[in-house]
């Protein structure tokens, strides 16, 4: 995690860009209009700002998940509240989890632990269970 912490903002933005690359329909969920000067998503400062919040929250969940279940639970409550009314469902959380995992695999390369994928999927399944089920 030290490698990631060094450039949180850049990694956060890269992860969101990877998400949009793999699943373009998610671009429409976000509002990046705070930055009126940006020509592309890559240099959009509004995306940058949101990415920092998102990645810090991931970091907290991973940390609390390991050592403080009550805090983990509170953080999850807050996250589900933040996404209410945004059409974000458990299945979307699993998709983001997969994108994050593949990004981490790219960045960490051989430094990635063999245990990472299973631990990650478990975390994201726990988060996803707190989001609404997508309507059929
Ligand atoms: C573990 C999963 C997730 C975490 C930790 C997370 C975290 C966050 C945080 C912290 C914010 C507030 C950002 C800010 O105030 O700048 C946010 C906003 C948002 N998130 Fe998530 N998120 C997660 C999953 C998702 C998923 C699956 C989607 C669906 C595509 C999503 C879509 C959004 C949208 C649309 C916003 C509002 C952005 C805007 O104002 O334009 N999030 N998220």
UniProtKB/TrEMBL annotation:
UniProt entry keywords in alphabetical sequence: Heme, Iron, Metal-binding, Oxygen transport, Transport
Domain Globin, residue spans: 1-136
GO molecular function annotation: heme binding; metal ion binding; oxygen binding; oxygen carrier activity
Matching InterPro entries: Globin, Globin-like_sf, Globin/Proto, Mb-like_M
Name of one Pfam family that matches: Globin
Annotated family: Belongs to the globin family.
Protein name listed in UniProt: GLOBIN domain-containing protein
């Amino acid at each position: 995690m030290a490698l990631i912490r060094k450039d949180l903002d850049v990694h956060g933005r890269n992860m969101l860009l990877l998400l949009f690359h793999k699943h373009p329909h998610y671009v429409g969920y976000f509002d990046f209009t705070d930055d009126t000067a940006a020509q592309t998503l890559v240099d959009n400062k509004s995306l940058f700002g949101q990415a920092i919040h998102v990645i810090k929250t991931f970091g907290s969940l991973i940390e609390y998940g390991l050592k403080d279940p009550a805090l983990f639970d509170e953080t999850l409550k807050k996250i589900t509240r933040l996404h209410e009314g945004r059409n974000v469902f458990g299945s979307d959380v699993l998709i983001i989890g997969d994108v994050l995992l593949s990004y981490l695999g790219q960045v960490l390369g051989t430094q990635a632990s063999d245990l990472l994928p299973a631990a990650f999927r478990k975390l994201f399944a726990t988060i996803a269970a707190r989001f609404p089920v997508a309507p059929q």
